[in-house]
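This week, work through this protein record:
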Amino acid sequence: MQQQWVPGDHWNPKNQEPFSDTQVVQTRELFARMGMVGEQVPPSGEYDQIVILGAMMRANNARTEFVANLMHEGRVTIAQGGKIVFWGGPRQREKKEDEPTARLLGTLGQPTHHAFQNPWLQKQLRLLSESNAERVLETEADEGRAVMLHHLGDMTLNRAYIPLATDISQLPEPGKYRDISRYDFTQSSGTKVEVINAQTVDRPMGDPRHTTEQCAKEWLETDPPAEHARVLFVSSNPYIRRTTLVVNKLIDQSGRNDIQLFSCGPAAYETTQPQLFMGEAGRLIYEDLQRAQ
């Protein structure tokens, strides 16, 4: 299992073995029984924080829309003084994200949209109109900010944090450097919103970038939840189980066992390939081995 599926980013080998149509169906059915395919809905109630794990644009949009629907239906509410947090980083937007990015900006760019007058959004729309598409929503953190504007309402920037370790005389290549480590916003409703722009780190299974583990670490170190906080962690399948394990591991290591973590998220896409499910199985095995050592 490990030698076949572990290498590469998300532990998908570069030369993936082909699956027959029958094997594709059987693999999805198997992982559905493991709870790694369908939508995972959280317990209804009030939460001190809702944490949305960032990814690429399609997942960012799906996860944030999932939260918006839960809140609209009244199944999930934010406690007084609570906040919504997006975990992102300086990873550069990839070419395959251009189409979903254009669709989102097309919606946000309608004068009737509730966030149309947002100054930051107007800057993004100007860049797009000036044919600077490569500079629009350049990073995962930017994408998170845009999808939250779209699904959760307009928000005003209150504060941006400059990382103290930044050495502007030696800027690394794009996608690794972050000039801002965190943004704090307030929605028109008064709800606090936070976007974490986590540090790029080396990884054993792919190119350097920020990780779920690094996001959780910065979240716990820089602006930790209140004592006995109820936190709703939002990922999406097939990643929910593994990413929840990673966050719980960091919570335990930080001595914050008082935090109650609940996980949820939208279903895997119908187009999700069996290799990706197998890759997640490999990563779960790896996490088990790491905990056992």
About this structure: Residues 1-7 have pLDDT under 50 and may be disordered. The two ends are 19 Å apart (CA to CA). The first helix runs from residue 2 to 5. Strands lie at 45-53, 76-88, 155-161, 182-187, 192-197, 201-203, 206-209, 230-234, 260-264.
